[in-house]
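ok so I'm stuck.
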Amino acid sequence: MRERIGIMGGTFDPVHNGHLAVAASVAKQLDLDRVLFIPTGNPNFKQGLKIAPASERAHMVALAIEGEPLFQLDLREVERPGVTYTADTLEELTRCHEGAQLFFIMGTDSALTLPGWKRAEDVARLCTVVVAKRPGQSTRQVREALAASPLDFDVVYLDVPQVDVSSTQLRERIAQGRDVSDMIPASVMAHIDQAGLYQDASGA
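replied:
not stuck anymore, here's the structure
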């Protein structure tokens, strides 16, 4: 039987309970064998923006998923030089996990832009796209955008837990000294405090 591998990519700046809830829900609904959390190294869509160092973001993911047997940290994008593209990652994973079926998990906001991604045709060829519905959003626009594309995406639409939190909001609240402990794993929150991350909201 083919191994079923979920791919949870993102900047994870910082990782939060919403990421974990979505990954767990998708894994259960699609009967995945594991979910790879792949922090971006030098993400194309974040060029010019201030983000925490990749090593810090990867460490926070490691803390967040510790003890979850289905979740694994994959550092290939952090270790890869240059700008990060999803198509490159999918090609590498296809070679490393020969015969596996790859499920690329994304929110509706990201899915809307999918047809315009670099080498989107390779993304369509190499994985099943899992669109996780986010709070307050519908999948109608995504369905229309993907249907209008000449590319043949294999797409699964799933309802996932409605955890209304974003990394952007968390960075702003931490910079303001507000309590976000209910939105971030305790081990990650402790590291943020110890390392003094996100104390300055400018450019974040």
